[in-house]
Write a structure and sequence with these properties.
globular, two-stranded antiparallel ribbon, alpha/beta, eight-stranded parallel beta sheet, about 40% helix
Protein backbone atom coordinates (compact mmCIF):
# COMPACT_ATOMS: atom_id res chain seq x y z
CA UNK A 1 0.00 0.00 0.00
CA UNK A 2 1.26 3.49 -0.84
CA UNK A 3 2.75 5.52 2.04
CA UNK A 4 0.88 8.49 3.45
CA UNK A 5 3.99 10.66 3.69
CA UNK A 6 6.60 11.75 1.18
CA UNK A 7 10.01 13.32 1.26
CA UNK A 8 8.58 16.52 -0.19
CA UNK A 9 8.65 19.51 2.15
CA UNK A 10 7.33 20.34 4.65
CA UNK A 11 6.43 16.78 5.66
CA UNK A 12 8.31 15.21 8.55
CA UNK A 13 9.95 12.60 6.31
CA UNK A 14 12.14 15.39 4.96
CA UNK A 15 14.19 15.08 8.13
CA UNK A 16 15.32 11.69 6.88
CA UNK A 17 16.51 13.19 3.62
CA UNK A 18 18.22 16.39 4.61
CA UNK A 19 18.67 16.58 8.40
CA UNK A 20 16.25 19.47 8.72
CA UNK A 21 12.55 19.95 9.28
CA UNK A 22 11.10 22.91 7.41
CA UNK A 23 8.35 23.21 10.03
CA UNK A 24 10.84 24.96 12.33
CA UNK A 25 11.88 27.44 9.65
CA UNK A 26 15.24 25.88 8.78
CA UNK A 27 16.29 24.74 5.32
CA UNK A 28 18.01 21.49 4.43
CA UNK A 29 21.76 21.57 3.84
CA UNK A 30 22.03 23.42 0.51
CA UNK A 31 24.52 21.14 -1.25
CA UNK A 32 23.99 17.56 -2.37
CA UNK A 33 27.28 16.00 -3.42
CA UNK A 34 27.33 14.78 -7.01
CA UNK A 35 29.87 12.02 -7.58
CA UNK A 36 29.89 11.30 -11.30
CA UNK A 37 33.54 12.42 -11.25
CA UNK A 38 34.50 9.60 -8.87
CA UNK A 39 36.38 6.99 -10.86
CA UNK A 40 36.61 9.39 -13.79
CA UNK A 41 38.55 12.60 -13.04
CA UNK A 42 38.80 11.86 -9.31
CA UNK A 43 40.61 8.80 -8.00
CA UNK A 44 39.61 6.91 -4.89
CA UNK A 45 41.99 8.61 -2.39
CA UNK A 46 40.76 12.09 -3.27
CA UNK A 47 37.14 10.92 -3.48
CA UNK A 48 37.31 9.51 0.05
CA UNK A 49 38.79 12.78 1.27
CA UNK A 50 35.99 14.71 -0.43
CA UNK A 51 33.35 12.57 1.26
CA UNK A 52 34.97 13.15 4.65
CA UNK A 53 35.01 16.90 4.07
CA UNK A 54 31.44 17.07 2.78
CA UNK A 55 29.94 15.08 5.65
CA UNK A 56 32.18 16.72 8.22
CA UNK A 57 30.80 20.12 7.20
CA UNK A 58 27.20 18.96 7.56
CA UNK A 59 26.40 17.54 4.14
CA UNK A 60 24.09 14.54 4.00
CA UNK A 61 22.93 13.71 0.48
CA UNK A 62 25.47 11.80 -1.65
CA UNK A 63 24.27 11.17 -5.19
CA UNK A 64 25.63 8.75 -7.75
CA UNK A 65 24.40 6.39 -10.52
CA UNK A 66 25.21 2.86 -11.54
CA UNK A 67 26.53 4.00 -14.92
CA UNK A 68 29.22 6.32 -13.47
CA UNK A 69 31.72 6.17 -15.13
CA UNK A 70 31.24 3.57 -17.85
CA UNK A 71 32.18 6.10 -20.55
CA UNK A 72 35.84 6.07 -19.53
CA UNK A 73 37.91 3.52 -21.48
CA UNK A 74 38.66 0.56 -19.23
CA UNK A 75 35.69 1.22 -16.95
CA UNK A 76 32.55 -0.91 -16.90
CA UNK A 77 30.19 1.24 -14.83
CA UNK A 78 29.70 1.36 -11.08
CA UNK A 79 33.13 2.82 -10.33
CA UNK A 80 31.62 5.76 -8.44
CA UNK A 81 29.35 3.51 -6.38
CA UNK A 82 32.28 1.24 -5.51
CA UNK A 83 34.32 4.16 -4.17
CA UNK A 84 31.37 5.39 -2.13
CA UNK A 85 30.93 1.84 -0.86
CA UNK A 86 34.46 1.91 0.52
CA UNK A 87 33.59 5.04 2.45
CA UNK A 88 30.23 3.70 3.65
CA UNK A 89 31.94 0.55 4.96
CA UNK A 90 33.94 2.56 7.47
CA UNK A 91 32.47 2.30 10.98
CA UNK A 92 29.58 4.70 11.55
CA UNK A 93 29.54 6.22 8.08
CA UNK A 94 26.43 4.59 6.61
CA UNK A 95 24.01 6.28 8.99
CA UNK A 96 25.62 9.70 8.47
CA UNK A 97 24.40 10.08 4.88
CA UNK A 98 21.45 9.75 2.55
CA UNK A 99 22.54 7.53 -0.34
CA UNK A 100 20.98 8.40 -3.69
CA UNK A 101 21.71 6.39 -6.81
CA UNK A 102 20.08 5.82 -10.16
CA UNK A 103 19.38 2.92 -12.51
CA UNK A 104 18.63 2.34 -16.16
CA UNK A 105 21.94 3.17 -17.84
CA UNK A 106 24.39 0.51 -16.64
CA UNK A 107 25.69 -1.58 -19.58
CA UNK A 108 24.73 -4.80 -17.77
CA UNK A 109 21.25 -3.61 -16.77
CA UNK A 110 20.02 -1.17 -19.40
CA UNK A 111 16.51 0.21 -19.43
CA UNK A 112 13.75 0.20 -16.86
CA UNK A 113 12.12 -3.19 -17.26
CA UNK A 114 11.44 -5.11 -14.07
CA UNK A 115 14.29 -7.49 -14.83
CA UNK A 116 16.76 -4.67 -15.46
CA UNK A 117 15.74 -2.75 -12.34
CA UNK A 118 16.08 -5.83 -10.14
CA UNK A 119 19.48 -6.67 -11.61
CA UNK A 120 20.59 -3.05 -11.27
CA UNK A 121 19.59 -2.66 -7.64
CA UNK A 122 21.45 -5.80 -6.62
CA UNK A 123 24.57 -4.52 -8.37
CA UNK A 124 24.28 -1.14 -6.68
CA UNK A 125 23.72 -2.63 -3.23
CA UNK A 126 26.80 -4.80 -3.67
CA UNK A 127 29.03 -1.97 -4.86
CA UNK A 128 27.75 0.42 -2.20
CA UNK A 129 28.23 -2.21 0.50
CA UNK A 130 24.87 -1.46 2.05
CA UNK A 131 21.60 -3.25 2.64
CA UNK A 132 19.39 -0.35 1.51
CA UNK A 133 19.41 2.64 -0.78
CA UNK A 134 17.68 5.75 0.53
CA UNK A 135 16.65 7.27 -2.80
CA UNK A 136 16.64 5.12 -5.95
CA UNK A 137 15.79 6.95 -9.16
CA UNK A 138 15.16 6.05 -12.76
CA UNK A 139 18.05 7.87 -14.44
CA UNK A 140 16.32 8.56 -17.76
CA UNK A 141 12.87 7.62 -18.99
CA UNK A 142 12.60 4.39 -20.98
CA UNK A 143 9.83 4.66 -23.56
CA UNK A 144 10.38 1.05 -24.65
CA UNK A 145 9.18 -0.27 -21.28
CA UNK A 146 5.59 0.23 -20.10
CA UNK A 147 5.62 2.91 -17.43
CA UNK A 148 3.42 0.77 -15.17
CA UNK A 149 6.10 -1.94 -15.21
CA UNK A 150 8.76 0.53 -14.10
CA UNK A 151 6.64 2.10 -11.35
CA UNK A 152 5.57 -1.32 -10.09
CA UNK A 153 9.12 -2.68 -10.05
CA UNK A 154 10.40 0.28 -8.03
CA UNK A 155 7.46 0.03 -5.62
CA UNK A 156 8.29 -3.64 -5.05
CA UNK A 157 11.80 -2.65 -4.00
CA UNK A 158 10.34 -0.30 -1.39
CA UNK A 159 8.16 -3.12 -0.05
CA UNK A 160 11.19 -5.40 0.12
CA UNK A 161 13.27 -2.82 2.00
CA UNK A 162 15.96 -2.63 -0.67
CA UNK A 163 15.17 1.04 -1.25
CA UNK A 164 13.40 3.59 0.96
CA UNK A 165 12.06 5.91 -1.72
CA UNK A 166 11.83 5.96 -5.52
CA UNK A 167 12.53 8.98 -7.70
CA UNK A 168 12.66 10.12 -11.31
CA UNK A 169 15.51 11.85 -13.10
CA UNK A 170 15.18 13.73 -16.40
CA UNK A 171 11.52 12.81 -16.93
CA UNK A 172 9.20 14.99 -18.99
CA UNK A 173 6.32 16.55 -17.05
CA UNK A 174 3.79 14.42 -18.94
CA UNK A 175 5.55 11.17 -18.10
CA UNK A 176 6.11 12.26 -14.52
CA UNK A 177 2.39 12.97 -14.10
CA UNK A 178 1.56 9.65 -15.70
CA UNK A 179 3.89 7.75 -13.37
CA UNK A 180 2.39 9.44 -10.32
CA UNK A 181 -1.12 8.69 -11.55
CA UNK A 182 -0.26 5.01 -12.01
CA UNK A 183 1.10 4.79 -8.47
CA UNK A 184 -2.03 6.43 -7.13
CA UNK A 185 -4.47 4.25 -9.06
CA UNK A 186 -2.59 1.01 -8.35
CA UNK A 187 -1.82 1.68 -4.69
CA UNK A 188 1.93 1.73 -5.32
CA UNK A 189 4.74 3.72 -3.73
CA UNK A 190 5.04 6.89 -5.84
CA UNK A 191 8.06 8.82 -6.97
CA UNK A 192 8.85 11.23 -4.13
CA UNK A 193 11.75 13.16 -5.66
CA UNK A 194 12.91 14.45 -9.01
CA UNK A 195 16.25 15.36 -10.52
CA UNK A 196 16.17 17.82 -13.39
CA UNK A 197 18.48 20.38 -15.00
CA UNK A 198 18.00 23.72 -13.23
CA UNK A 199 20.35 26.61 -12.64
CA UNK A 200 20.59 30.38 -12.91
CA UNK A 201 21.23 30.29 -16.65
CA UNK A 202 18.73 27.53 -17.40
CA UNK A 203 15.47 28.25 -15.62
CA UNK A 204 12.65 28.23 -18.14
CA UNK A 205 12.15 24.52 -18.75
CA UNK A 206 12.16 23.56 -15.09
CA UNK A 207 10.08 26.48 -13.82
CA UNK A 208 7.47 26.30 -16.58
CA UNK A 209 7.15 22.54 -16.98
CA UNK A 210 8.51 20.58 -14.01
CA UNK A 211 7.85 22.92 -11.09
CA UNK A 212 4.04 22.77 -11.44
CA UNK A 213 4.17 18.97 -11.08
CA UNK A 214 6.56 19.26 -8.14
CA UNK A 215 4.34 21.80 -6.40
CA UNK A 216 1.13 19.86 -6.96
CA UNK A 217 2.50 16.56 -5.68
CA UNK A 218 4.81 17.88 -2.97
CA UNK A 219 7.92 16.33 -4.49
CA UNK A 220 11.47 16.91 -3.30
CA UNK A 221 13.86 18.38 -5.85
CA UNK A 222 17.56 17.68 -6.37
CA UNK A 223 18.49 19.98 -9.26
CA UNK A 224 21.37 18.82 -11.40
CA UNK A 225 23.62 20.91 -13.67
CA UNK A 226 23.58 23.40 -10.78
CA UNK A 227 26.73 25.17 -11.93
CA UNK A 228 25.96 25.06 -15.67
CA UNK A 229 28.96 22.82 -16.33
CA UNK A 230 31.15 25.18 -14.33
CA UNK A 231 30.08 28.43 -15.98
CA UNK A 232 28.59 29.73 -12.73
CA UNK A 233 31.87 29.27 -10.90
CA UNK A 234 33.13 32.27 -12.87
CA UNK A 235 36.26 30.49 -14.00
CA UNK A 236 35.29 30.48 -17.68
CA UNK A 237 34.57 34.20 -18.01
CA UNK A 238 37.77 34.83 -19.94
CA UNK A 239 37.58 31.59 -21.91
CA UNK A 240 41.14 30.75 -20.90
CA UNK A 241 40.18 27.91 -18.54
CA UNK A 242 37.81 26.03 -20.80
CA UNK A 243 40.42 23.70 -22.17
CA UNK A 244 41.62 22.59 -18.73
CA UNK A 245 38.34 20.98 -17.65
CA UNK A 246 36.34 18.07 -19.10
CA UNK A 247 33.36 20.40 -18.93
CA UNK A 248 34.92 23.46 -20.48
CA UNK A 249 33.34 22.84 -23.87
CA UNK A 250 29.91 22.28 -22.34
CA UNK A 251 30.26 25.46 -20.30
CA UNK A 252 30.96 27.33 -23.53
CA UNK A 253 27.64 26.13 -24.94
CA UNK A 254 25.85 27.92 -22.10
CA UNK A 255 27.68 31.17 -22.76
CA UNK A 256 24.99 33.43 -24.20
CA UNK A 257 25.20 37.17 -23.56
CA UNK A 258 22.49 36.86 -20.91
CA UNK A 259 24.29 33.94 -19.24
CA UNK A 260 27.52 35.89 -19.07
CA UNK A 261 25.60 38.75 -17.50
CA UNK A 262 24.25 36.33 -14.89
CA UNK A 263 27.79 35.21 -14.11
CA UNK A 264 28.79 38.81 -13.44
CA UNK A 265 25.88 39.33 -11.04
CA UNK A 266 26.64 36.06 -9.27
CA UNK A 267 30.24 37.21 -8.83
CA UNK A 268 29.08 40.54 -7.39
CA UNK A 269 26.77 38.84 -4.89
CA UNK A 270 29.52 36.41 -3.96
CA UNK A 271 31.94 39.24 -3.29
CA UNK A 272 29.43 40.92 -0.96
CA UNK A 273 29.09 37.70 1.03
CA UNK A 274 32.78 36.78 0.97
CA UNK A 275 32.21 33.43 -0.74
CA UNK A 276 32.96 31.87 -4.11
CA UNK A 277 30.48 32.37 -6.98
CA UNK A 278 29.70 28.65 -6.90
CA UNK A 279 28.35 29.05 -3.36
CA UNK A 280 25.90 31.71 -4.53
CA UNK A 281 24.70 29.52 -7.40
CA UNK A 282 24.04 26.69 -4.95
CA UNK A 283 22.45 28.98 -2.35
CA UNK A 284 20.07 30.41 -4.94
CA UNK A 285 18.89 26.93 -5.90
CA UNK A 286 18.53 25.99 -2.24
CA UNK A 287 16.18 28.96 -1.82
CA UNK A 288 13.78 27.63 -4.46
CA UNK A 289 10.58 25.80 -3.45
CA UNK A 290 10.98 22.08 -2.83
CA UNK A 291 14.75 21.98 -3.28
CA UNK A 292 16.39 19.70 -0.71
CA UNK A 293 19.91 19.99 -2.09
CA UNK A 294 21.53 21.34 -5.24
CA UNK A 295 23.67 18.69 -6.92
CA UNK A 296 27.22 19.72 -7.67
CA UNK A 297 30.50 17.86 -7.89
CA UNK A 298 34.08 18.77 -7.05
CA UNK A 299 37.42 17.41 -8.21
CA UNK A 300 39.46 18.91 -5.38
CA UNK A 301 38.97 19.85 -1.74
CA UNK A 302 39.41 23.48 -2.75
CA UNK A 303 36.51 23.24 -5.17
CA UNK A 304 34.40 21.54 -2.53
CA UNK A 305 35.26 24.23 0.02
CA UNK A 306 33.90 26.78 -2.44
CA UNK A 307 30.64 24.85 -2.75
CA UNK A 308 30.32 24.33 0.99
CA UNK A 309 30.35 28.08 1.39
CA UNK A 310 26.68 27.96 0.36
CA UNK A 311 25.83 26.81 3.88
CA UNK A 312 26.88 30.20 5.27
CA UNK A 313 25.08 32.31 2.66
CA UNK A 314 21.69 33.85 3.37
CA UNK A 315 20.61 35.69 0.25
CA UNK A 316 18.73 38.87 1.14
CA UNK A 317 15.96 40.53 -0.84
CA UNK A 318 18.45 42.66 -2.74
CA UNK A 319 20.55 39.64 -3.73
CA UNK A 320 17.52 37.69 -4.88
CA UNK A 321 16.16 40.63 -6.84
CA UNK A 322 19.48 41.15 -8.63
CA UNK A 323 19.77 37.46 -9.50
CA UNK A 324 16.14 37.36 -10.63
CA UNK A 325 16.54 40.38 -12.88
CA UNK A 326 19.67 38.98 -14.52
CA UNK A 327 18.45 35.41 -14.96
CA UNK A 328 14.75 35.76 -15.77
CA UNK A 329 14.01 33.34 -18.63
CA UNK A 330 13.56 34.88 -22.04
CA UNK A 331 10.60 34.02 -24.22
CA UNK A 332 12.88 32.28 -26.74
CA UNK A 333 13.49 28.57 -26.53
CA UNK A 334 16.39 27.67 -24.28
CA UNK A 335 19.21 25.59 -25.76
CA UNK A 336 19.25 21.91 -24.90
CA UNK A 337 21.08 21.12 -21.71
CA UNK A 338 24.55 20.03 -22.85
CA UNK A 339 25.29 17.91 -19.79
CA UNK A 340 22.12 15.91 -19.21
CA UNK A 341 23.02 13.12 -21.61
CA UNK A 342 26.33 12.49 -19.88
CA UNK A 343 25.33 12.91 -16.29
CA UNK A 344 22.76 14.12 -13.84
CA UNK A 345 25.39 15.45 -11.49
CA UNK A 346 27.05 18.67 -12.64
Amino acid sequence: MAPTTRIGAPLDTLTDLASSDWTDGRRPFPLALGTNVFGWTVGAPTALELLDLFVGDGGRVVDTADVYSAWLPGNSGGESEAIIGRWLARPGNRDRVVVSTKCGQHPDAPGLSRASIRAAVEGSLTRLRTDRIDLYSAHFDDDETPLRETVTALSELVDEGKIRFAGASNYSPARLRQALAIADSDGLHPFVAVQHAYNLVRRGEYENEIAPVVDHHGLAVLPHSSLASGLLTGKYRSGEEQGSSPRGGRAASYSTPQALGVVEVVAEVAERHGVAPAAVAVAWLASRPGVVGALASARTTSQLDDLLGAASVVLDEGDLAALEAASAPSTSTAPADPSAAASSAP
